[in-house]
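Need residues for this backbone.
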């Protein structure tokens, strides 16, 4: 069965019917180095070329700075992280996105960062 709004690409029992290699045109490696905490943001430039609906969805998610991991979670693609990195690197390559390493990139075990994460976890409990 398909959901009315999703057309033939989503099956209630099987999930998404488009394979990840189809979305990324068979590519498994992004052309831009992206880590999960890397921030991506739309530049406002219109992407040129033939980009798929997943590219448009990813670009829409990047109106404000957002980590790569969050984009992957929202796209809900199989092999989400790998495919998301390929899609985002396509958008970087065509000038529609810009990337920025997180502030703690050089000191990932910074005490203030770890304390902020711990505080956030405590607030969730």
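Answer:
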């Amino acid at each position: 069965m398909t959901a009315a709004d999703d057309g033939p690409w989503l099956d209630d029992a099987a999930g998404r019917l488009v394979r990840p290699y189809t979305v990324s045109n068979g590519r498994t490696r992004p052309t831009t180095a992206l880590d999960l905490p890397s921030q991506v943001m739309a530049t406002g430039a219109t992407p040129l070329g033939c980009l798929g609906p997943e590219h448009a969805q990813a670009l829409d998610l990047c109106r404000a700075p957002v980590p790569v991991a969050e984009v992957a979670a929202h796209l809900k693609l199989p092999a989400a992280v790998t495919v998301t990195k390929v899609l985002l690197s396509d958008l970087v390559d065509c000038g529609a996105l810009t990337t920025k390493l997180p502030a703690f990139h050089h000191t990932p075990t910074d005490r203030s960062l770890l304390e902020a994460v711990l505080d956030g976890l405590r607030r969730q409990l």
